[in-house]
Specification:
The complex is a heterodimer of chains A (266) and B (277). Chain A has 266 residues and is an alpha+beta fold. Chain A folds into two domains: 137 residues, Gcn5-related N-acetyltransferase (GNAT) (Aminopeptidase, 3-Layer(aba) Sandwich); 105 residues, SCP2 sterol-binding domain (Nonspecific Lipid-transfer Protein, Chain A), CATH 3.30.1050.10. Chain A is built from eight helices and 13 strands. In chain A, the strands form two sheets. A six-stranded mixed beta sheet of chain A has the order 1-2-3-4-5-6. Chain B contains ten helices and twelve strands. In chain B, helix 6 crosses helix 7 and helix 6 packs across helix 10. The chains are: A alpha+beta (266), B alpha+beta (277).
Chain lengths: 266, 277
């Protein structure tokens, strides 16, 4: 089955398409937090071999030379992946995919069509509104840190360039830490060099004390750092170092938007 | 009450038939219970050493799968993470903290650390996570910048929903008393769903798909909010908020607003009876 839509061709998946599809997927979504890179093997499992997906449910939009968008539509009504290249006519590509999805699910006897898109994608929002979709609540992602020293180390390393002015030795005390987690993390910052070790340290310049979920939420940005401080959920000793330490923690905060494609958790 | 003793260990190939049966028993409707093979065995990230099973008297009564993945914590930071799969506990063994023990098993055994995994993540209904995952092992919500869009193609699910509400009302005289006298015909034009109406008459709720001539009240807006209101996820204050912010609009019969609040209250109670049963 194939349709021509003003210069674009919409057709069903055929063997070998996945190489181009995963290139497009990885290029579009790699900037999001929560991204899991697609490999051909992984894509074949999470899309092609998915029990409710058949090749006719995978719509590919191309301009005759390359793939500019695609949707993986399951008979259950889930659009497991929706991806389009915004360098092309996104409105046309997305409307083609949505039209295909609605028709396909209707013919398969499904009751509803659901898809995920980044909240910042205004084009998908507008097109979904035009096609009569409503925003709904779905499963949500939750995180739990297992290795606090390594987690803090990774974040500090990422912001290494901005930490050159920090010469600080401080201790993060994790309150009510579970048995698998060391309760103390010692951090030393010297001229841009980062050292993070498990356990207490001699004479730390400051001590940050909070429970694990509070620290992680503050670093993920789901809880306000200053709010946690003012509500005494996160304490800094000595008090006069609070501003400096909180400023450092703000620097470590993950600011990239998060996105979870349906195929990652269905 | 005698305390039941459970033991926990890593999965062994010989467990597979028992595990398949357990999964079928726990999720009979999903893929007709046959999703073990596709979801885990065929998964390119499947690692048998990251599957834990719970045993009682030599019988497998629970399991939990983990899948190691490269995970972007931000655009420039990739870490080793583990995606938590389904936590499955045989129905008769629920309520004995088997789920919590399964979630903790690889954390305490250092198996994650040996594989360089620094965090775990999973997807769950927020209400379930607040009740179970967060207190059990300290999961926190990831920032939410994913939007889900849904379009209902027919009224099948709505018909079922209203059938449940009506059955509950018919079984309870106090609910019948509450809607007694609230006779009205309400037409709904909601984004994300086909046009439908409900007719409240003779202590009954009747659902009908399609338009309605001269309804007493017309409600427009977002289907999800309406659906949440029926299920009690949006309380009275939430409903008022939806009306004030125009997410739900009464375009005809505005004076019936207090009757509508009463109707939603009855729906909420009726729905909760269904959930409890």
């Amino acid at each position: 089955m194939s349709n021509c839509v003003s210069g674009y061709v919409a057709r069903a998946y055929s063997e070998g398409d996945e190489i181009e599809l995963i290139q497009l997927f990885n290029r579009i979504y790699e900037g999001f937090a929560g991204f899991v890179p697609r490999t051909p093997e992984y894509w074949r499992w999470c899309c092609l071999s998915r029990p409710d997906v058949e090749a006719e449910g995978i719509v590919i939009v191309d301009d005759g030379k390359k793939v500019v968008g695609y949707g993986v539509v399951g008979k259950t009504g889930n659009v497991w992946e929706l991806c389009y290249d915004s360098a092309y006519n996104g409105e046309e590509i997305v409307s083609t995919i949505l039209e295909w999805a609605v028709n396909y699910v209707e013919n398969a006897g499904g009751d509803s069509v659901s898809l995920n898109a980044p909240a910042s994608d205004q084009l998908v929002r507008d097109m979904c509104s035009r096609f009569g979709f409503a925003e709904t609540q779905s499963s949500h992602m939750f995180l739990s840190v297992l290795d606090f020293p390594q987690f803090i180390h990774e974040l500090l390393n990422l912001k290494k360039e901005k930490l050159k002015d920090y010469n600080e030795k401080f201790l993060i005390k994790i309150k009510n830490s579970p048995p698998w987690c060391e309760g103390n993390v010692a951090v030393t910052l010297r001229k841009g060099n980062v050292s993070v070790v498990e356990g207490a340290t001699d004479e730390p310049g400051a001590v940050v004390e909070a429970d694990g979920p509070t620290i992680v939420s503050c670093l993920l940005g789901t809880r306000g750092l200053w709010k946690a401080f003012l509500c005494l959920q996160l304490r800094v000793k000595p008090f006069w170092k609070s501003f400096k330490i909180l400023k450092l923690f703000s620097l470590l905060k993950i600011k990239d938007p998060w996105f979870s494609p349906r195929a990652d958790f269905g | 009450m005698k305390k039941l003793e459970y033991s926990y260990r890593k999965f062994a190939e010989a467990d597979e038939p028992e595990l398949i049966n357990l999964v079928k028993k726990a999720f009979p409707s999903f893929l007709k219970g046959n999703f073990w093979v596709w979801k885990y065995k065929l998964n390119p990230n499947f690692d048998p050493s990251l599957v834990v099973v719970a045993e009682k008297d030599g019988q497998v009564v629970g399991c939990n799968h983990w899948l190691a993945r490269d995970f972007k914590l931000s655009a420039d930071l990739k870490v080793k993470a583990s995606l938590g799969g389904d936590i499955i506990v045989s129905p008769e063994h629920r309520g004995h903290k088997v789920g919590k023990a399964l979630l903790s098993f690889f954390r305490t055994s250092k198996a994650f650390k040996e594989k360089g995994i620094i965090l775990t993540y999973m997807f769950a209904d927020p209400a379930l996570s607040r009740r179970f995952h967060q207190p059990a092992v300290g999961y926190v919500s990831a920032p939410d910048s994913t939007t889900t869009y849904t379009k209902f193609l027919n009224s099948r699910r709505l018909t079922e929903k209203f059938q449940v509400v009506n059955d509950a009302i018919q079984s309870r005289s106090d609910l019948q008393q509450k809607i007694n006298g609230l006779n009205m015909r309400i037409l709904f034009r909601l984004r994300g769903a086909p046009v439908f109406s409900i007719n409240l008459a003779d202590k009954r709720v009747e659902f009908a798909e399609g338009d309605l001539e001269s309804p007493d009240t017309v409600i427009e807006g977002d289907f999800t909010l309406f659906s949440s209101a029926i299920e009690g996820k949006v309380g009275l204050s939430g409903l008022v908020n939806c009306l004030l912010t125009r997410k739900l609009k009464i375009t005809k019969g505005k004076l019936k607003i207090f009757s509508l609040f009463k109707v939603f209250k009855v729906f909420k109670i009726a729905w909760s009876l269904n959930v409890k049963s």
